[in-house]
Specification:
The complex is a heterodimer of chains A (about 625) and B (about 500). Chain A is of the alpha+beta class. Chain A is built from 20 helices and 23 strands. In chain A, the strands form six sheets. Chain A has a six-stranded antiparallel sheet with strand order 15-16-17-18-14-19, with no helix packed on it. In chain A, a hairpin with a 2-residue loop joins strand 11 and strand 12. Chain A starts with 9 loop residues before the first strand and ends with a helix. By secondary structure, chain B is α/β, with parallel strands linked by helices. Chain B is built from 14 helices and 14 strands. In chain B, the strands form three sheets. In chain B, strands 5-6-7-2-1-8 form a six-stranded mixed sheet. In chain B, strands 10-11-9-12-13-14 form a six-stranded mixed sheet, with helices on both faces. Chain B has a two-stranded antiparallel ribbon with strand order 3-4. In chain B, a hairpin with a 5-residue loop joins strand 5 and strand 6. In chain B, helix 2 packs parallel to helix 12 and helix 6 runs antiparallel to helix 12. The radius of gyration of chain B is 27 Å and the shape is globular. Classes of the chains: A alpha+beta (about 625), B alpha/beta (about 500). The interface between A and B is large, with 72 and 62 residues.
Chain lengths: ~625, ~500
């Protein structure tokens, strides 16, 4: 065994969206990192849809970026269509989405991994964890070599015991063209982990040359580009492409219905649960039989190839049937399928078995991130990968783990949901999962996570000063708007009428003027009342002022909740010793091990009175501890 | 969007767990539930003397030098507690405790009032109006503990006691006091979830070309909720639906339903005559028996009639009897067919027994005073002798001599008494009413936001407290309900 094999602090298993962020975070924190991937040519590969971001997901990309992750930079650099979704649904629920060139994205990530100091990429399959009691001390790779390390981050995606289904055929595989990982999940099972199955699906990939786009509607991206990262260039790097909208019809549905028995999902071959928000076309025509059509976007996957991703039409029907029904869709009459749609079933570890640090409860030094925890989506995976990487590093020195609260970030909501509630289907983020949605906006990501990012310490110094300047400019603008007072002079009122608002009768601060519905910052600036033209600076300020009433209420709700949220429950607490808990509650609490009273209160089957009983118990411990301390002081 | 409607005020929203550090005033009935001569209501928290000043004006004396003088600690004051219109609710004794010298360690009051449920409810509601919310189970003890007034063992003892109550708590109260009520709560919850699902789908799945309900349908649903809430709050305030039992008197014409009704009411409410078919409509009244409310409905006797007006009355009466929690089937014991009626009743009883469904029918043999030689009683005893254990609810009464009426009333209120013992009815009800008012407030803000065309995230923001209050009301958890509903209503998927 070569001695260099022993030189790693952290081993990351898998080089998908979770693995990349975990490895980069750890390496950037100065650790020696080995990333083991079974296919070195598919690093950061977008296995399904060609987009990064979207509703609630765009938020997470910006959060990962603000903390020092890579996903936002990569998406900005490879974007071939940008859209700001929900632009008119309110500022908090806006979501940025970048359709990316899949090949360029993977190439970008591969290059970043290779040039990052302290990071080694190796092709191979991790077959087994090497354990010392309940601590992970290394991994065994399929070439027989062993790698020793202080912590392991497992990000195997859909690869653990992955099985691909098309029609009545099924075969082992983690993704089309890649073999599954076998062994790791059996080992986890043997150590008492609850490992069950989930399924997901992907639509067919089509050859653009065989499509008659004239029969579809063109869908272009936005004119304005707002990069995910404040560290990215402000201009798009790649030329922009259009997507194309078409619809299924009754004939499509009839073919699908007639062949339902041949669908892997419907013939009962699959035991895993699929996502409700991403149903197969079989599901759609069955569950919503009254619908006469379903929309589908034809999305180019790359500038370098002619693959088209058929959004919304994931299926596991046999190839022949796929050909048949696809050709009923306008534009696809002559379509040539390059790769057929399929369903994939894989092992996941019930996430209530991990802590908020993403370390498993029963094996020290083992961190899990991404689909292995039951999530779906590149952004959800990357977010967990980043947190797992940071905490794997912290675990080496037994530092407190880095945990985001639910009112700080969508990433906090994501991990808290997984850890305290578990999941029954592939978990995807929605804005509605965040109870404090109004304060978790894309526009204020930098401000709300600045201190937390500093705590982690990944953002390089030269970038920090740029970002600090941006924050400073925003706060200066807020001050300026509050200090600028407009008086009801005729000249002022004329300018106000010109921007479509009403005249003043008494002096008014510019910030109050901005609270008028019909007045935007751009108007004030155009009328010459205030200076400023950079939306990166004025947009967050404008939103914060316009919605201050709601934001204040939201903040007071958060404060109320945090009073209890903040009370932490020591991990060694024996719930059996607390009087007033029912047997069912003791069982639930012992199993889920809530970290705070807030989490305890969110567990199903735990009554408010039980939360109070725990509170009383904890209070007593603290009272006793502080009185002991007082005694010691004397 | 219209920013005029944006809210600029800060309010502190209620959270079920926020009491941990709070010392805002709270109130609750401190004495035992159920019938008693006196009841004790405890109020504790910062500034509670001042906050109750408008309902307990006698605590403050006008000084000769001008200004007023507040009460002293550890003194008992006598006076009238008054409502918002300064109308007296009750005569009470108030004991005052200064901060640091009370059970909780906070400024406190103990109001001892008369033990009737109405009085207790009215006082608690008045305190709520003054911004003093109902205490959560164990909250007084928790505060006492926090302020070092009691030790942990005591606090835990209180908690485990409370726990044994609350786990059954809301649910028991809801199910026992009337399935109809929890059904209405559930209906409100379902409608709120539907509204939230509409909003969330518009936000989270905006690009999927879904058919959302338009504003008209949205506001219609909202209106439905508002209507239900108004009804519930109104009945809640007067103590009807929230604690009463609906009792309908049914039976053939001229069996003496109205006479019995009058006896039960204690006054002549229905026009009684010996001519069959006097009651042409239904008459409703509310009585209080041993501290429990009964809502009585006297229905028009059942017979075929040529009169349209009478038929309308009969139909209305029938509807009432279907809605009732308990039906008193009144039979004239001097009528030739009373035994047949009894057989039919016993058959129905048997069916219900076998299907394990609730027995909600009483067989009331009226005019028993006319059975001077005891023939009817004898036959009755014989017919009932085959029933062992749980016997059918058959009563012999007389509207003339009042014989048997008391026994029947006791039987009627028995489930209420049981529920009150198990769940603490008064407190539960007042808390329910508070939650209903929270829902109403939130729904009102939602309507304002929606009609002003504010963005859906703001509409959803206004709706959220209603959803949370509703779940507290029903003891369900928010978790994924709304998301589940979105998946149920809409065809989604990329």
């Amino acid at each position: 065994m070569a001695s260099e094999n022993n030189l790693f602090d952290i081993v990351v298993v898998g080089a998908g969206h979770a693995g990349i962020e975990a490895a980069l975070a750890a390496a950037r924190l100065g650790r020696r990192v080995l990333i083991v991937t079974s296919n070195g040519s598919r690093i950061g590969y977008m296995s399904c849809n060609p987009s990064i971001g979207g509703l609630a997901k765009g938020h997470m990309v910006r959060e990962i970026d603000a903390l020092g992750g890579e996903m936002g930079l990569a998406a900005d650099a490879t974007c071939i269509q940008f859209k700001r979704l929900n632009a008119r649904k309110g500022p908090a629920v806006r979501g940025s989405r970048a359709q990316c060139d899949k090949e360029a994205y993977s190439e970008y990530m591969t290059a970043v991994l290779h040039r990052t100091q302290g990071l080694t990429v190796r092709a191979g399959e991790v077959k087994e964890l090497i354990l010392d009691g309940h601590r992970v001390i290394g991994v065994r790779v399929d070439d027989g070599s062993e790698v020793r390390c202080g912590a392991v981050v497992v990000t195997t995606g859909t690869f653990m015991r992955g099985v691909i289904h098309i029609g009545d055929r099924s075969f082992s595989g983690g993704r089309h063209g890649d073999k599954a990982t076998v062994g790791l999940s059996d080992q986890l099972r043997a150590h008492g982990f609850e490992v069950t199955r989930l399924k997901t699906g992907t639509p067919a990939r089509l050859n653009a040359q065989s499509i008659d786009f004239s029969k579809t509607q063109e869908a272009r991206g936005d004119v304005d580009f707002y990069p995910f990262s404040d560290r990215s260039p402000r201009e798009l790097a790649l030329p922009q492409v259009s997507c194309w909208l078409s619809y299924t019809n009754e004939l499509t549905h009839e073919i699908i219905r007639k062949n339902l028995h041949q669908s892997a999902v419907y013939s009962g071959q699959i035991e895993g649960t699929g996502p409700r928000y991403c149903p197969s076309i079989e599901d759609k025509v069955t569950r919503f039989a009254e619908r006469t059509q379903h929309q589908t976007f034809l999305e180019p996957e790359s500038l370098r190839n002619s693959l088209i991703y058929l959004q919304g039409i994931s299926t596991s029907l046999p190839e022949v049937v796929q050909d048949q029904f696809l050709r009923t869709i306008p534009g696809l009459e002559q379509v040539e399928v390059v790769r057929y749609g399929y369903a994939v079933e894989y092992d996941f570890v019930e996430p209530t078995q991990i802590r908020h640090s993403l370390e498993t409860r029963c094996l020290k030094g083992l961190f899990l991130a991404g689909q292995i925890n039951g999530t779906s989506g590149y952004e959800e995976a990357a977010a967990q990968g980043f947190i797992a990487g940071v905490n794997a590093v912290r675990s080496l020195t037994e530092d407190e783990p880095f945990v985001l609260r639910r009112d700080e970030a969508y990433i906090g909501v994501l991990i808290d949901d997984l850890v305290s509630k578990g999941t029954k289907e592939p978990y995807r983020m929605f804005t509605s999962r965040a109870e404090h949605r109004l304060v978790l906006r894309e526009d204020n990501t930098l401000e709300r996570l600045w201190n937390r990012a500093t705590e982690i310490g990944i953002i390089p110094v030269d970038r920090r000063s740029d970002l600090e300047r941006l924050i400073e400019q925003r706060s200066q603008l807020t001050v300026l708007l509050n200090e600028t007072v407009l008086t009801p002079k005729q000249e002022v009122n004329q300018r106000l009428l010109a921007i479509g608002t009403t005249v003043l009768t008494k002096p008014v601060r510019a910030s109050d003027l901005l609270r008028r519905p019909e007045v935007g910052f751009a108007d004030l600036s155009a009328a010459g009342f205030v200076q400023g033209s950079d939306p990166r600076v004025y947009e967050p300020v404008e939103i914060e002022l316009k919605y201050s009433g709601y934001i204040e209420i939201e903040k007071s709700r958060i404060e109320n909740l945090n009073q209890i949220e903040a009370v932490s429950i020591p991990s060694e607490l024996d719930f059996n010793k607390i009087r007033g808990l029912s047997a069912e509650e003791i069982e639930k609490l012992t199993e889920k091990k809530p970290r705070t009273l807030g989490q305890a209160s969110r567990l199903s089957g735990v009554n408010p009175s039980a939360v109070q009983a725990i509170a009383v118990h904890l209070l007593d411990r603290n009272v006793m501890r502080s009185s002991k301390e007082r005694v010691l002081e004397r | 969007m219209n920013q005029e409607t944006l809210r600029n005020s800060t309010e502190s929203d209620f959270s079920r767990t926020a009491f941990i550090k709070s010392s805002a005033p709270i109130c609750a009935l401190a004495s035992a539930q159920g019938l008693a001569a006196l009841a004790l209501i405890r109020v504790s928290g910062d500034d509670c003397w001042q906050m109750t000043r408008s309902c307990l004006p006698f605590l403050f004396k006008r000084k000769s030098a001008g200004g007023t003088e507040g009460p002293e600690s550890h003194r008992v004051y006598f006076g009238k507690i008054v409502d918002a219109d300064l109308e007296p609710i009750d005569e009470v004794l108030v004991t005052t405790f200064a901060k640091g010298r009370s059970f909780t360690g906070e400024e406190s009051l103990e109001i001892s009032c008369h033990g009737s449920e109405q009085v207790v409810r009215a006082i608690l509601l008045r305190l709520n109006e003054l911004g003093i919310r109902s205490a959560q189970p164990g909250e007084f003890s928790f505060r006492a503990y926090r302020n070092g007034r009691i030790d942990l063992v005591q606090a835990e003892a209180v908690l485990s006691l409370i726990h044994s109550r609350t786990s059954a708590g809301t649910r028991v109260a809801l199910s026992q006091l009337g399935g109809a009520l929890s059904e209405r709560y559930r209906e409100i919850e379902s409608n709120l979830n539907w509204l939230a699902a509409q909003l969330e789908a518009q936000i989270d799945f905006s690009s999927e070309g879904l058919d959302y309900a338009d504003d008209i349908r949205f506001l219609e649903r909202l209106g439905g909720i508002e209507q239900s809430l108004r009804e519930l709050v109104r009945t809640g305030a007067s103590g009807r639906l929230l604690s009463g039992l609906n009792v309908a008197l049914v039976g053939k014409v001229n069996v003496g339903k109205s006479s019995l009704f009058n006896v039960l009411c204690g006054f002549e409410r229905a026009i009684v005559s010996i001519e069959p078919g006097t009651t042409r409509d239904y008459i409703e009244t509310e009585i209080c028996y041993e501290g429990f409310f009964l809502r009585l409905t006297d229905t028009a006797g059942i017979r075929t009639s040529d009169s349209d007006v009478e038929n309308i009355g009969i139909r209305a009466g029938k509807k009432q009897s279907e809605l009732a929690d308990v039906r008193l089937r009144v039979i004239d014991c001097m009528a030739a067919d009373w035994a047949d009626e009894l057989e039919a009743f016993l058959k129905r009883h048997q069916v219900r027994e076998n299907s394990d469904s609730e027995d909600r029918e009483f067989f009331v043999l009226n005019k028993i005073d006319l059975d001077r030689d005891g023939v009817v009683r004898g036959q009755l005893a014989e017919k009932l002798s085959r029933f062992e254990g749980k016997s059918p609810r058959v009563f012999t009464v007389s509207a003339s001599t009042y014989e048997g009426v008391d026994l029947m009333l006791k039987e009627l209120v028995a489930p209420l008494r049981q529920a009150s013992l198990e769940a603490g009815t008064v407190v539960t009800q007042v808390r329910q009413l508070e939650e209903l008012q929270r829902i109403a407030k939130s729904v009102e803000l939602t309507r304002t936001a929606k009609t002003n065309g504010v963005s859906p995230e703001i509409v959803a923001f206004e709706l959220r407290p209603a959803l949370e209050a509703c779940q507290r009301l029903l003891g369900t958890a928010l978790h994924e309900q709304v998301i589940d509903r979105v998946f149920k209503e809409f065809c989604l998927g990329k």
